Amino acid sequence: MPAKTDNDRREVMIRLQGVEKSFPTAAGVLQVLKGVNLELYRGEFIAISGPSGSGKSTLLGIAGCLDRPTGGEVFIGDVAVSKLSDDKEAELRNGLIGFVFQAFNLVQSLSIEENVEIPLFYAAVSRGERRRRAREALRRVGLDARRTHKPFELSGGEQQRAAIARALVRQPSVILADEPTGNLDSKTAGQILALFDEFHADGKLVLVATHDPGIAEHAQRRIHLSDGVVDSDSGSRPPSEPRP
Amino acid sequence: MDRLFDYLLSGLRGVLRHPLRSVLTVTGIVLAITALLSMMAVGEGARQQILKEMEQMGLRNIIVTSRRPPKKVAETSQSQQDWGPVAFGLTNKDLARCRAILPGLGLVHAPAVHELRNPVVMFGRKVNARVLGITEDYFKTFKVLLNRGRLLCAADGRLQTQACLLATPIPSEILRGRDPFGMVVSIGDKPFKVVGTITPQSRFMDTGVGGEGESGGHNAASNFVSIFIPFETAIGRFGPITIHVDQGKEEFYKLELDRVILECEDPLLAVKPLQAILDKGHKEVDYEITVPLEMLRQRQRTREVFNLVLLMVAGLTLLVGGMGIVNIMLVSVAERTKEIGIRRALGAKRRDILLQFLIETLALTVTGGLLGIAAGLGGVYGVAAYTGWPVSVTTSAVLGSFLVSVAAGVVFGLYPARRAAAVLPVVALRYE
């Protein structure tokens, strides 16, 4: 019997098993993911890179329960996502996963504070508690003073920090970020990365889909996608090990 | 509760986000609720008015009125030249037969009226007056308040006294501050002493003298006096011949009774036997039977049809308004697809999105409903003040209108809300 590896001892947060995803198009069926197998562990900082159309965002959406695969299975912990009801999936997204998007995806009609409160609202947290926790999250990303502002009154970097505050406010175990620095200058991108580092330092899983080689270099584990398949995976290491 | 309040707040924000659009959207609902409330207020007002009128006529009464048959008119001049006055209408024999037969069918009283058309002089001036010769039981059927003096009694009839009663109010131009009690009124050159003044408690048939409300003021407004004398005096002193002046031409008729009022326990039961009694004594139909209870039912049926038409108009307006709301909410769902995606990604369940859009629609329709109620109340009372129409706004009408606006919100908001809830989060997030 082989000896247990470090990976065997660590907690698998998300497992993708033969995941396929295809879309019907006018030109026929477009196969975006072609049997992806991945195990993503608690405490990892992972960068998924690859050319445009390689399936990074699709993979992130499926891993974050925003979308369902057309083949294979996704496990969150030990739970097969395909067995979950729509409501349970929503609860999973709300409690376990924090999303950060390239386009920030803040609700323009709401203030920054109200945007940060959204995940708490769907978790049925009382209004007073929502306010308190939203302010705390905004303080953490340095936006306390801008909490009453509307998103369009903020710079790109500030909007992304607000989006990160929103992702963190429920204290999820996983952060999924799709091109989080794609719309930002390098200095602001550095600030965002520092926030992810903070989150990672808390022992959470950070999964970033990116074109940015800087982020890829920064990550603890690097996965490269090409034409819907994982063509390289630097592999998982325990958090104690230095970055490659 | 906390969440519901938040949804409500979010709904109101949705309404206020596009104020002009919201106003235009709810216009249909405002109009529908205005129409609905107005319909109910006018309908209820009419119902109460009909009921009041019928009650004043007496729902237990059957009123039989003498009518000149059409061919008698044509024959009149020729007949008068040949044989003198033409006789028609109800007779004392009819009254006697009714009084003899109908008690078995619940007849309580059967007062009769003979109206005189002779000139009347009061305080030395000719006045407009209606002189009614009434049987002694008249005031048993039509209740009066005796202000002063006494009522007419059986002895007045038997002795054919020249006593009379005046109904108040008497026009002030006639009285000029003088006391009518005890004075002498000249009716067709015959002196009648005023032995009492009365205030009607119910409307007297065909006299225009009413007991309550607007009919009570009819006397004063019309500037005429109602005078009651004993029936026997009217017939005995003046005879059954009446003179009609039509376009300067005198016409003579023999008319014993102008009206007979049959107060019955069940007028609908008594009306057929009455018809049979009258048919026997009359070769042609020279009388008219009015059953206020039957009239009430007919008018209620008419009102129901009228209400149904109004209800359909209000319903169609509501439908058109509702379609506008569905349209705008679908636009709103399309515009906010990204927001739906964001909310779904952050943990909103389908029912959260459904509830959010449903409450936004409700906020629109309830706002429309409240504006409609305000407009309806303003309109109804405005029209009532201007036209004098009877209206009645009941709590149930206001509550009903409000509930209709809530129901409209649910009905018309459900489809867009379901569309919003069905949006897939990943698709919605890609939406631009």
Q: Strand pairing plus helix content of chain B: what structural class?
A: alpha+beta
| Termini Cα gap of chain B | 34 Å
Order of helices and strands of chain A: HEEEHEEHEHHHEHEHEE
CATH C-level class of chain A: Alpha Beta
Beta-strand segment tally of chain B: 16
Record field, number of beta strands of chain A = 10
Description of the molecule:
- The complex is a heterodimer of chains A (244) and B (432).
- By secondary structure, chain A is of the alpha/beta class.
- Chain A has a single domain (6-233), classed as Rossmann fold (3-Layer(aba) Sandwich).
- Chain A has helices at 6-9, 56-63, 86-96, 112-122, 127-140, 156-168, 186-201, 213-218, and strands at residues 12-25, 28-41, 45-49, 71-76, 79-80, 97-101, 174-178, 205-209, 221-226, 229-233.
- A 6-stranded mixed β-sheet of chain A has the order 6-7-8-3-9-10, with helices on both faces. In chain A, strands 2-1-4-5 form a 4-stranded antiparallel β-sheet, with helices on one face.
- The relative contact order of chain A is 0.19.
- Chain B has 432 residues and is α+β, with helices and mostly antiparallel strands.
- Chain B starts with a helix and ends with a helix.
- In chain B, strand 10 and strand 11 (190-200) form a beta hairpin.
- In chain B, strands 1, 3, 4, 5, 6, 7, 8, 9, 10, 11, 12, 15 and 16 form a 13-stranded mixed β-sheet that branches.
- The longest helix of chain B is centred in the C-terminal third of the chain and has 44 residues, at 292-335.
- In chain B, 57% of the residues lie in helices and 19% in strands.
- Chains A and B meet through helix 3 and helix 4 of A and helix 1, helix 13, helix 14 and helix 16 of B.
